[in-house]
Each structure stands twice: as structure tokens, then as C-alpha cells.
Specification:
Blueprint: H1 2-8, H2 16-19, H3 23-39, H4 73-88
Length: about 100
């Protein structure tokens, strides 16, 4: 998906691991998510304000999903805490 998004906006093709770090890609993903939320009639406080893109697939094999395919938040948050703090501009955990 990110490769298609990059190509459609004339962003140089690169490996997925590099695309997730590109601020331009992150902004495009965020704008798309915000647009979908607005079209769906979400209230302003329900519209996403930031996004963190990761290069690791979340699965039960790596412990980021439970065997029931639910998010293992207590394992995910520590992996991305620095990026989450950057998105929301705060230094405390979201848990």
C-alpha cells in the first residue's frame, strides 16, 4: 500500500522499511485517515490527529497480537512509545 501511495505522489520508490520513516508518507497516510473519518461523519474529537507507521508485521508469532488476534498493547506500546510521544508531544505513556 505504501509503495502505491508513494508512486501516486511522485515519491521515489524505496523499501517499505524506509517508506514508513518518510514524513511525507506519514502525512499522506494521516490525511487519508482524516478524510475517511470526516466522510464517515465522525465528530472532530474522533478524528485521528497523528499516526505512527511501523515496519514490523503485527502477529501472534512475534507477540504483538494475542492468539485470538487482539492487540497486545502492553507489548506494542513500549516498542513505539518514543514515536507515540512525538506524535502527541507528551512524555508519558498512553497505557
Amino acid at each position: 500500500m505504501l509503495s502505491k501511495l508513494a508512486a501516486s505522489h511522485d515519491i521515489r520508490a524505496r523499501p517499505h522499511e524506509q517508506l514508513v520513516q518518510d514524513p511525507q508518507i506519514r502525512d499522506l497516510v494521516l490525511k487519508e485517515l482524516q478524510s475517511v473519518g470526516k466522510k464517515a461523519g465522525l465528530a472532530p474529537f474522533e478524528i485521528i490527529e497523528g499516526v505512527v507507521l511501523g515496519d514490523e508485521e503485527w502477529s501472534s508469532l512475534n507477540g504483538l497480537l494475542t492468539p485470538a488476534q487482539k492487540l497486545a498493547r502492553r507489548k506494542i506500546v513500549p516498542l513505539y512509545q518514543g514515536q507515540i510521544d512525538g506524535v502527541y508531544g507528551k512524555a508519558k505513556s498512553v497505557l
